[in-house]
């Protein structure tokens, strides 16, 4: 009798669990956002006049590489150096390219991250080495696999100063930069 009673109780428990259980998969579905490993973004740096295209590739759940290439508005470059402007034309377009190493505080592509970036920028025939920049960012999905990304930081730019070129003296100049980016992208 105790065996029959426990079998009946077990059967009732099984039937009640199957009747009252819900399919929660619709609440956990993020549209494949967490399964993507690559992001293509287009951005704008309102302080420095840079319009870049980005490609980010996840190396694992915590780290990714981000390539950047884009146009630079030369007119927007000297706002930070009013006392000692860069040796460039007052107007025109330049080009920038960089590689960034991104560290996610949680997992790729969660909101908070830190990026270490290095690259080159060409303006008015002068090459500037963006030796290192460090920035913090926040990215959030907006719909499906589309996202918005906000990033701000500081960096160091090095270049050969043409002022001493006629004396055959190689003089390097170092300047601080303030990169700020507003980006929108698609994850796949």
Low-confidence stretches: none
Average pLDDT, all residues: 84
Radius of gyration of CA atoms, rounded to a whole number:
26 Å
Helical segment tally? 2
Can you tell me the CATH architecture? Beta Barrel
The CATH topology: Porin
Shape: rod-shaped
Strand order of the largest sheet: 1-2-3-4-5-6-7-9
Largest pleated sheet: 8 strands, antiparallel, barrel
In terms of topology, how is this protein built?
Elements: H1 2-20, H2 25-28, E1 38-44, E2 50-58, E3 63-73, E4 93-104, E5 112-123, E6 126-143, E7 146-160, E8 172-177, E9 180-187
Antiparallel strand pairs: 1-2, 1-9, 2-3, 3-4, 4-5, 5-6, 6-7, 7-8, 7-9
Could you characterize what this model shows?
The structure is a single chain. The chain has helices at 2-20, 25-28; strands at 38-44, 50-58, 63-73, 93-104, 112-123, 126-143, 146-160, 172-177, 180-187. It is rod-shaped and about 105 Å long. The protein has an 8-stranded antiparallel β-barrel. The N and C termini lie far apart (60 Å). It is mostly beta strands and 188 residues long. Helices cover 12% and strands 52% of the residues. The protein contains 2 helices and 9 strands, in the order ααβββββββββ. The chain has a single domain, classed as Porin, CATH 2.40.160.20.
